[in-house]
Amino acid sequence: MMEQNELLIDLTSIVKSEGMEIKVNKEYPIEVFSQYDDMPSLQTPVTLTGTITNHAGNLFLKGELSFTANFLCDRCLEPFDREYTLPMEDTIAREDSGLEADEFIPYQHNTVQLTEAIYKCIFAVTLDQQLCRKDCKGLCSVCGCNRNETTCNCDDTEIDPRLLKLKELLK
Ligand SMILES: [Zn+2]
Ligand SMILES: [Zn+2]
Which ligand minimizes its atom distance to the CA of 153? Predict the structure, then answer.
């Protein structure tokens, strides 16, 4: 298990110097996110690249997350991998900055831990529609077959649920 401490970002060189910037290029192993139950199933580590800049005493992170995660297709329910590149922008400030808690990532002792903020960013994509492919045909609402793989002859235009039950009984 990787130490969370190894993922801390040292801000010492920029916290007191306006206009200064540091580059961020970090890889967050899959296991550091295992504490979050509703994280999509990561297939690769998460890479964060970007910069943290001191603007008028406030620190701004502007970066990009890349990772691949496994999802279940919303239409055919088959698992598939999807590659993501997500923008990540956040304000990093001292705990006592006076900002609202959800407006910034707090730092302490000139270091910041971004794991939680990255998790939030990635969790947001689980709310996207997930399709194994754009034209996924989904499951047949009558026989349940995967219509990407099989062609059935069901007529799923209008089925009265009561009729469906009757059909089941007659099988
Ligand atoms: Zn699908
Ligand atoms: Zn069918």
Answer: 2
